[in-house]
Amino acid sequence: MTDLILTLSGISKSFPGVRALHNVSLELYPGQVTALIGENGAGKSTLVKTLTGIYQPDEGEIRVKGEVVTLPTAISASDAGITAIHQETVLFDELSVAENIYLGHAPRNRLGMIDWKTMRNEAQKTLDAMAAGIDAGIPLKELGIAKKHLVAVARALSVDAQVVIMDEPTAALSQKEIEELYVLVELLKQDGKAILFISHKFDEIFRICDRFTVFRDGEMVGKGFIKDTPENEIVKLMVGRSVDHIFPQREAVIGGTVLEVKGLSHPTEFEDISFEVRKGEILGFYGLVGAGRSEVMQAVFGMTQIASGAIVLDGKAIAPKSPADAVEAGIVYVPEERGKQGVITGEPIYRNVSLPSLDKTSRGGFLRMAEEFALARTYTERLDLRASSLSQNVSTLSGGNQQKVVIAKWLATLPKVIILDEPTKGIDIGSKAAVHEFMGELVSQGLSVIMVSSELPEILGMSDRVVVMREGHIIETLENKNLQPETLVRLAAGIAKEKAA
Amino acid sequence: MTDTTATGRHLPDRLDNPVKSAVLSWESLLVLVALAIFIANSFASPYFLNEWSLSDMTFNFTEKALIALAMALVIITGEIDLSVASIIALASTMMGLALQVGADTPMLVAVGIGVGILCGAFNGFLITGLKLPSIVVTIGTMSLFRGVAYIVLGDQSFKGYPASFSWFGQGYVFWVISFELVLFLVCALIFYVVLHHTNFGRRVFAIGNNATAARFSGVRVDRIKFVLFCLTGLMSGLAAVLLTARLGSTRPSIAEGFELEAVTMVVLGGVSILGGSGTIIGVVLAALIMGLVTFGLGLLNVPGIVMSIFIGSLLIVVIALPILFRMWRQRKA
C-alpha cells in the first residue's frame, strides 16, 4: 500500500437537489494508468473537479503519498502534484509555448524577475525529450489541438506532477494523433506518474489502461485489473439499473407516421439520417456525447441548415429555415442548454410561456394580458410548476422548474412533435419524475415525442423504439422489447459483439 | 380554466403591488429630477418662465428625441445605431439635391424619409444579413453617410427651401405648441403602444434578454432587428426633414453629435445599455430633462463646449449608476 500515490476515501459531494458523489473511493498507482469509467452523469467530472481544487468534497479525505491533503484552490492542487489535461485544453493561445509550460512556476533570476532564457531552454528540453517537434518560442495559437495536448503534457512534466488526470483527451483528435498520445502516456508511465484516464471509448481503455474504476450514479461500483476483466463485465457494472427511480407504466397506443426524416445530411455533423416517429410514440435517441444527435434535432427544428435530405410532417414535405418555421409547422424543441437556449432569463414566467403563442393570445397584434396569464397558468399548473407567481423571474427558478417552463411554453403551441434534448439533465429527482410522467401523458394524448438522452435508464424506461447514433450516423433502430442496456452501450461505443474473451 | 386547479397549486398573476413598484420606479425619479431642474431654471433666469421660452425649449430636444424613440427599441434588443446623425446629413443633402431639380414640399419630405429608410435598411442588411456587429457597422456608416454628404456639398450649402416646407420645422399647430412637439408626442404614443402593448414589442424585449433563447422560441430575431434598423433610419429621415426645415439650409455638418445625445436620452431614460429592459415613458422624460438642462445652460450663456462636456459626463454617470447600484446591493446581500 505504501506505493500508492493518491488515495481517495469516503468522498461525498452534493449539490442542491443532486447527489453527485456518494462515498466514493479511488486509488492511483505510480507508473500505472487507471481508467475511470461511467455513463454521463455518473460523477466523473465532479471527481475531477474535486481533485483539481475546483469543488470541495462534503465528506471524505484525499491522501497524496499517504498524507492527508486539502485542496481549497486550483493552485493547491497543483502544489500537491495533481495536474489535469482536459478534453478542450485549458491553455493560453496568445502566450508562447514556453510561457504556457511554465505559467505559474516560471524560473526566476536573482532579482525575482522571470528568467526568460532558462525558461525557454528548459521548455525546449522537455519538449525534445518527448520528441514533440515543437518550438518553445512560438505562440500557442499556431499549434493544432493535438500539439496543444503535447504542450499540456509537457506542462505536467515540468511541474513535476505526481498525478496526471486525462479527461477524454482523445475526443478531439485524429487516429494518428491518438497514437502519438498513447506514446506520451507510455512516457508518463515510465516517469512513474500515476495517471487517471477518463474515456468513453473502450478500445483505448483496453489498449492503454492497467486498472479500472467504475462509477455509477455517483457511487463507486467496481474496480480491478483491465487484463483480468472481460469487456462485458465492465459494461454491466456501468449500466446496472438504478433502483431509486421508477418510470411510469403506460400502454402505448401507436398510430400512423407523423414525422418522417429521409436522408438528412450536414456537411460536417451528420450523414444520411433517416427515421420516423409515429403518433403516440416516444422515440429515444441514444449515443455518446458528440454522436450528432442534438445536431440532427436542431436541423429538424430549422436551427441549422442541412445539405440534403427531406423532412415530411403529416405527409407534407417541410423545409424549416428557422425555428419559427418549425414551430408553425408543429415541431418544437426543448434544448439541452436550458439557461442559454431554453428559458429567457430576465423575463417572468408568463412571458416565457406565452412568447411563441403570442399570436393566439393577442388580438390584431395587441397584447391581451388576461389571455396571456390564463394560457401561462393552464400549462404551468398542468406541469405542477413550483413558483410563487407567474410574474416571478425564471432565473430565480430551479433547473427542474425552468425545464417545466420550457415544456409549458411548447405545449401551449399545441405541437404535433415535441423533441426533448436531454430533458432531465441536471435536474433533481422529483422534477425528473414529473417530466417523465408528463411525457407519458403527452403521448397518450396523441403527441409524438423524440427524446435525446444519454441516460440509459431513461432511454430504456421511456422509449417505444430506440435509435442509436455514433459519429454522425444512425447505427441501428431497435424496438424497446427486452432490450439489454449492454446492447445499446456496445452499439453506441462501437464495440464488436460478444468477443470470445 | 376549470380543470387546471386540479393539481391544487394555484399561481397568482403577480405578487408585487403595481402601484408601489410604479412609485419606486426610475421613471418617477426622472419626474422629480425634471421638476427640480424646472424650478432651478426658473430661479436661474428671469426669461425662463414665459410661454415662448418654454416653447423654444422644446425645439432643443424634439428632433433628437424622435430618434431616441427608435434608438430605445434598438438598444433594448442589445444593438446600437451610431449612424443616425449621419443619416440626417445624407437625407438633408438629398433633399437639397431634390430641391435643385425642382421638387415640391411633399416630394422633399418623401425624399428625406425615403433616404432615411434606405440608410437604415443598409445598416440592417449588414447587421442581420452579414452578421456583423452593429457597433462596428454603424460607426462605419456614420463616416460613410456623412462622407457622401461632404462629397456632394463640399463647403457649400443648400438654401431656398419653400415656405410650406419650412413650416415643418418652424410652424405652430396651436398657440405656442409647435408642429415638432405635436409630432414627437404622437410618435411617442405610437412607440409606447408598440413597445409595451404589442406582440412586436414583447419580442423586442425577449431578443434583448436572450437572443439565442428567443430564436429557439420561434422569434424571427433577424427580421425584427432589420425592421428596427429601418425604423431608426425612418425616424432619422423624419428628424432630417424637421431640422432642415427649421434651419432652412443644409450643410454637411448638420446634426453633428446627435447620435450621442440620442443614446444619452435612451440610457438616462432607464433603458439598459446591455439590452432587455426599458420604457418609452422613461425615454420621453429623459428627453425633456435634456431639453430643460441644455436650454437652462443656454439661458445662462454657458458655451456649447461646456454643454458637450455636460452631456458626455451625464452619459457616463447614467451608465455607471445602475452598475454601481447593483454592486452596492450585492455587497449588502
Helix content of chain B: over 70%
Termini Cα gap of chain A = 30 Å
Please give the CATH architecture of the largest domain in chain A.
3-Layer(aba) Sandwich
Strand arrangement, major sheet of chain B: 1-4
| Class from secondary-structure proportions of chain B | mainly alpha
Number of helices of chain B: 15
Per CATH, what is the topology of the largest domain in chain A? Rossmann fold
What's the CATH first level of chain B? Mainly Alpha
Query: How many separate domains make up the residues of chain B?
Result: 1
Number of strands of chain A: 20
What is the general shape of chain B? Answer: globular
Please report the total strand number of chain B as a whole number.
4
What is the beta-strand fraction of chain B? under 5%
Rg on CA atoms of chain A, Å: 25 Å
Overall mean confidence score, pLDDT of chain B: 89
Summarize the structure.
The complex is a heterodimer of chains A (501) and B (333). Chain A is an alpha/beta fold and 501 residues long.
Core attributes:
heterodimer; A: 501 residues; alpha/beta; Rossmann fold; 3 domains; 18 helices; 34% helix; 24% strand; B: 333 residues; mainly alpha; ABC transporter involved in vitamin B12 uptake, BtuC; two-stranded antiparallel sheet; 15 helices; globular; disordered N terminus
